[in-house]
């Protein structure tokens, strides 16, 4: 009896060992480790901005983090606290010194940052630019809003809001290139597509709420029948909204289109003072920056000089991250971002 | 003795079971199945082209397949055999009927294909367009060459080849929009950036080798001092090369810049008859199309109506897949594609 019991125990034991081992092997032959896009958690990808505390970057960072989580890599966020190229340059130097797996940077000043960006690329660190580019740098890609196209979208939205009739004005920031592009896209589209609309004024709001309010007040005093105002950035949009509110009952009630999705602007969209605001594809900027950097890092890890001649790059040259039109109808989903 | 032996066997058995089980659990808690981008091999992503047999698509398909392999999903390739919108529409209908996880399509005719593309999107299949778009369709994204920018690059390359001096000509295909954009980018850049260069002729080569040869012969007869010719597509480039070869010794030896990287063109670059050709980012078109479709498919799987208003899309609006300049110095790596 005892012997038989011993044999049973042995057979059962061997069977258990066999089953477990089989399960183990079955798992090992699953190709988890060879296919599936997955990086090394010790690889750190860094996002660098300026005015690093503002809300605008939050959704970009969320996209960057979402990508990193999916790919099992790490993320750090750095930036200059001010709108200051020298400060950002110092931050970038510090980031380069740590030899990260990749850097996504929004350049506060395209010219002043170019040399430091090139230094990163030359030392074998993949760099992509987002939101605000540095076209003459050696960075591999740019991901951001096509601002001329954003102006086109704003013009078409304005035409919908005004039945494609009447005088419209633009309040912009004259010395910033991206605002110039938004202005051009808006003006060119009104001129070419809407014969019953006219752009009657182009004012400098200097990216400032008070200046923009004053600019809008002046335009309203000159054109009491104004059908709409396009503000190319959000401080200006809030200033314009104040002017239009104060003007209520004194003339027309011009429709306002603003830019971006900070809380102040969204609140005004929700209450109807601003009819629409143009939301940039900020999550896309972060997510696809991470995807491109991951792709570049793998290539450079395989062959350190792979992209030295900027040829056959495995990432796009330029990514237009898109524009969404936010109105009262869909404003709620933008608060969550 | 026997009892002791039995105890040993039991202890060893329990120990082995414990170790194996521990290893098994350790593997299971590895986050392979929760992080890491990895799809389902049963999800099929379909690439649809026209003139499906031509070399041009090979590198696009390679990018599409590379992406699918990394993400553990399946790929099919379909297309009309001819340059025929009705045939491509039928192919697309058949693809839609199989309810694939996503479709990347290059539209032979943007207007005629729009309704069928919209049908796919409305039935919940993610669609992106590559190489040749359908801007008025509901497709989520376009990935392709910025042809105006390609013209700029060609102009700058021409300026390098000719020391930025002299008369240059363009041989193009007048009725195709992308060729018009290449022409405009080239002409605008020569005019604005190179005061000592002039575009003296713009000829229609009809995308045909013989017509392009004749066009180039005519230009050479009119401008014996011609410094260069830009052919906006590859058949034309080969025709122009024939004309210039036949003209040798009779006047100047104009530099030729062509487009694309088919074997005929690369051979002429290698032997020096064509000085440079503009390579499109075809691998990027395929790879990043797959990445975008994968991303869209996941979102729609989670929430079928997620992108019905085209808002907050998790993919870029437009991707410029880039342009590389191929010369004798780097021509060899383009044969491999």
TrEMBL record, chains A, B:
It comes from Paenibacillus crassostreae. GO terms for cellular component: cell envelope. GO terms for molecular function: carbohydrate binding. It comes from the Bacteria. It is found in: Cell envelope. Belongs to the bacterial solute-binding protein 2 family. InterPro entries: Peripla_BP_I (IPR028082), SBP_2_dom (IPR025997). This is LacI family transcriptional regulator. Residues 47-299 form the Periplasmic binding protein domain. CDD domains: PBP1_ABC_sugar_binding-like.
